[in-house]
Batch of 3 targets.
Target 1
Amino acid sequence: MVIEDNKYVELTYKVVDDATGTTLLHIEYPLGYVHGANEILSEPVMLALGGHTAGDVIEIPVDCTVLYGERDEGLVFTDLIENVPEEYREVGTKIFMENEKGEPREFVVTRMDDKTLTVDGNNPLCGRQVTFRVEVVSVRDATDDEIESGGAVDPELDDIMAKAKVH
């Protein structure tokens, strides 16, 4: 069965930085979605998946500058560690802040030493050339419920949630 609209697809993937060969993200547990109903990955990746079948391994180059823009060094801030609340003093911690217009932006703690802490508001992929290495695990017809929700539907979970509702 080939990937096309209204097919339930499971896949694993990793994102590799073309410049360094470093794996930036690795999804090992199959991720399921309904093709054409739920865009779980970037448009170039979703388009490239069409027509493939279970067992296919696809390498899809993606210019993240097109998706996320150029890297903006104005979104990188370093401050003295003593000015940063304790709960944010770990590399990888996400911090949500608003600009003067009230627009939210996610920053990530990227560096820390004994004296300073650096946060970065750029998308981690912006400005990079990457390759998505996708393995198609399975393809099947999606149910009507899966098409409506864009992904897997677990009847047992639906029953549990229905019983948990306060009447």
Target 2
Amino acid sequence: MTRADWQQIAEERLLAAEALLAAQRWASAYYLAGYAVESGLKSCILVRITANPEVLFQEGGNKFSADCWTHDIEKLVKVAGVESVRNTDIAADAILGNNWQIVAIWNEKSRYQMKTQAEAEEIYNAIADNARGVMQWIRGRW
């Protein structure tokens, strides 16, 4: 898959989460919102690999490749090589930091969990905020 593919998937998942919120499908909205972030970060990983293909061999070879397919948001931040800049940015912006904290607890197991309206709206807003949202931050790096 290309960077553009991952970007398109990220945007599609975010739009789907918005539609599911409007339809009051809280658990599904929560789940897809998290996948928007995951997909965006996978685009960031491809930016890193394109700029430094040797990273595939420097960081454990097969382990690096396997880590690219995780659903763990924090691990994806590390694999994408954006952890230090993210940490600097969230230290300077408490709202962005709070949004990342909300998103960091998402995981793919949420597909088996019921979520409340408040939980679904909280994660969606943390991701979709056009000024300080996680997706806006990711878009600046993909």
Target 3
Amino acid sequence: MTTTKLDLTREYKTYYTAKTTPEVVEFDEAQFLSIDGRGAPGSKEFTAKIEALYPVAYGVKSLCKKQDNDFGVPKLEGLWWVESDKPALEVPREEWRWKLLIRMPKFVTSEIVEKVKAEIIKKKDIELVKEIMFERITEGKCVQIMHVGPYSTEPESLSKMRKLMEKENLIENGLHHEIYLSDPRRVPGEKMKTILRQPVKERT
């Protein structure tokens, strides 16, 4: 008997889709594997922490599959911020802060995650696995857009989002969020798709 594999991108279709024009959307609580860091995207720390996150995600998938709860590991996501009053793009990339995320299905528990982490630390000796957290995040109301193109042209899409926020009388209410739908190793820069999302609230 084969079990059905849960496809999170289908189960939460509105979470993993966006229009190429900015829109206001709303999201409920979701749970994630996460790991924090600091520095430019693609830096040694950034790469090492991605390499720690995926074995845990696939370890959780493997353990859940044995319990007849198989699922496909979804796309990498990132929350971004700076510890400065300056706009993020005026701050050196080496000072950027980030939290890398991989969404987990509702049936995943902290006990499952801790069990997998312990096994990976024991077998593969990936020390960074200790830093991986299992957390719930509720973003609520957001402005989002599908950015098509290289990461370097994101400011153009962010500008469109800001215009909509001004029009709708909205201000930031959380961290800048990106969902990486394309693999930069396989997809040409001009065709890459990234969801840009910004939690917002009404300006009072």
